[in-house]
Amino acid sequence: MFILKLLTRNAFRHKLRSILTITGVAIAVLAFGLLRTLVGLWYLGVESSNASRLVTRNAISIIFTLPISYKDRIRQVPGVKIVSYGNWFGGIYIDEKNFFPNFAVDPGNYLELYPEFVLPPDQKKAVILDRKAAVVGRKLADRFKWKLGDLVTLKGTIFPGQWEFIVRGIYRGAQKNTDETQFFFHWDYLNETLKKTVPRRADQAGFYMIGLTNPDKAADVSVAIDRMFKNSLAETLTETERAFQMSFVSMTEAIVIAIQIVSYVVIIIIMVVAANTMAMTARERIAEYATLKTLGFGARHIAGIVFGESLVISLAGGVVGVIFTFPAAHWIETELSQFFPVFNVSPLTVYLDLLAAATVGTVAAIFPTWRGATIPIAEGLRRIG
Amino acid sequence: MEKAKPPIVEITNLTKTYRRGVQVIPVLEEITLDIADGEFLALMGPSGSGKSTLLNIIAGIDKADRGAVNVAGVDISALSETDLARWRAINVGFIFQFYNLIPVLTAFENVELPLLLTTLSRSERREHVETALSIVNLLDRVDHYPSQLSGGQQQRVAIARAVVTDPTIIVADEPTGDLDRVSAEDVLGLMARLNNEYGKTIIMVTHDPRAAEKAHVIRHLEKGILNNVHS
User: Is the reported ipTM for this assembly greater than 0.85?
Assistant: First the structure.
C-alpha cells in the first residue's frame, strides 16, 4: 500500500510531463484501437459468414455471370436445401459519395438464407409482393431518412438507367456486427427491364447463394456443383461463404498489412517517448533510489518503484485511450457509415489496448530500472545537492 | 577507574583506491580504527581526504579493497549486497548533508520508510514514528512535506528517520553542511542528546570545527591517512 502510494505520487510529481506522457499513450492506444477495429472490419464479412452457406460464381471471375438456368440444376444436387441468386447492381443514389452496397436478389429465398437480416413478417410479405420493392438496412434508412413507402431512385452504372424503387422493408441486424447499410431489390425487376433494354444481358445471375442441409457436406456439395458445370460455357467455382469473402479480403491484404504495421509503429513510437520520459525520471531520482538503498531497500524494491511508476503512467494513458475509443468508434460509425457500416470495438481490442499500454510501460521501464537498481549507492548519493 | 567500553566498530588495515582510466588513486591507506560503543566520533579533514569514503565503508554502502570492517561483531566486508542491505536496515541510521528526504512523502512517511522493511504492524510503526518525531520535536509537522519544512526541520526529520529503527550506529555525513548557524546548533544539540541520553554511537564527518566540538573524539584524515586523536 505504501509503495503504491509512493509510486502514484511519484508518477504525478512532474504533472505537466506526466500529463503529456499520459496523453501521448492515450492517443497511441486510441489510434491502435481504432486501427485494430478497422482491421477487424476488413474481416467482418468473413467473420459473419455462415458455415451452411455456399457461393457459386463464374470460375473465370466474379465479374462474369452465370445463366439463371443453373438455379434448378443446383437445387437438384444432394445436400442443397435452398438456392438464391443475385447481382451486384452498383447503383448510385443522387451522388457517388452516397455509396452503399446494392444487390438485385431473389428476396424470398435470399432473406430465408440470411436470418441475420431481421424483417417484420408484414414487411417481408410486402417486399415479396411488390416487384419494385426494396429492402434497406436500418442504418441506411436512417442515413437518408427513408421511411416505408418512400420512392428511391438509383442511377445504374453497370445497368444504365434510372431505377425506381419503393422502400417496403427496413431490416435490422440480428447481431451487433450485422451490416445494416445494404440495399436489396427484386432480381426479377432488373431482369425484366434488361429483357426489354439489353436482352443479351438478361437471365444472368452474378452469383448463387446456396443453403446446405448439413454444413459438414459443404466440400462434397461444392465439388458436385462444379463437376456438374464442368466443360460448360460458364464453368462454376463453388466455395464456402467464408472462403468467398476471404477472396475479397485477400485482394486488399496489402492494405490490411499496412494498417497493422502502422498500428504497431504507433505503439513503438510511444514506447520510445515513454522510455525517454522514464529515463529522465530515473536520472532525476537516482539520489532517491540511492537513499532508499542506503536505508536497506533492495534492487527488487527499486525495480518495483520504477516499474510501478512507469506502469501507472502508461496504464493511465491506456485507460484514457480505451475510454475515448468508444465515442471515437461511435462517431466513425455514425459520420462515416458509408465507409464503415459497422465499427464495433471488440473486447479483444480493449484487451490488446491495455496490453499495448502495459507493454509500453514495461519496455519503457527496463533501462531506468536497471540503472536505478544497479547504480552503486555512493555514486547515487553524489547526485544530490 | 571506569572500564573502557569494547569497540563496536573495528577497522583493520583498510585500504581503498579509485580507478580513473589506468590511473589508480589511493583514497584510504591502511586505516586501523576502533570506535567504542556509545562514542561520538568526528572525522575531519580536507575535501578529498577520504573521510566520506571511510564513513560509507563503515556504513556498508561502499566496499574497501583490502582490510576488515567489523561492526557489532559482523564482518561486513564479507557480506553480499543483499545481506548488506538487510544489515544496514537493522544496524545503521543515516544522516545526510542534504537530508535526502523523499519529496513526495510527508515527514511521517519519510520516518516510516525504514520500518517498512521490518515485520512491525501498522500501529507499531505509527508508535515508533511518533516516538522518533517526538525526540526531534516535530510531532506537529507529521503531515508536512519536505518542501513545507525549513532546512533545520528537514534535517530533524532525517534524524528521526535515522533513529526510528533504533540502529547500532548512526553515521552522519556533514549533517550541518547545508544549515544556517542556528539550525546547525539545533541539529548538533539533538545529536549530542542522542549520544548522551540514548547512548547512540555516532560517527560524523564534518568540516565544521564547531560541529566537531560536540564529539568525544576527533580523528583527522589527510590524503587517506588517519593521523591523530583529540579527545
Answer: yes
pLDDT per position as a tens digit, A175-194: 887 889 999 999 999 999 99
The alpha-carbon gap from A27 to the nearest alpha carbon of chain B, in Å, equals: 28
Regarding pTM above 0.90, the answer is no
Contact residues of B toward A, CB < 8 A: 53, 56, 59, 61-62, 81-82, 85-86, 88-90, 94, 96-98, 100, 102-105, 109, 112-114, 116-117, 161, 178
Q: Which CATH superfamily is domain B38-58+80-230 in?
A: P-loop containing nucleotide triphosphate hydrolases (3.40.50.300)
Q: Which chain A residue shows the shortest CA-CA distance from B112? A: A2
**Do residue A65 and residue A39 come from a single domain?**
no
**Which positions in chain B touch A288 (Cβ < 8 Å)?**
100, 102
Name the residue among B61, B86, B98 with its Cβ closest to that of A377. B61
Asked if A358 is an interface residue toward chain B (Cβ–Cβ < 8 A), one would say: no
* B61/A294 Cβ within 8 A: yes
Last residue of a domain, one of A204, A234, A264: A234
| H/E element, A124 | helix A121-129
pLDDT in tens, B19-38: 888 888 888 999 999 999 99
SS (H, E, C) B45-103: CCCCCCHHHHHHHHHCCCCCCEEEEEECCEEHHHCCHHHHHHHHHHHEEEECCCCCCCC
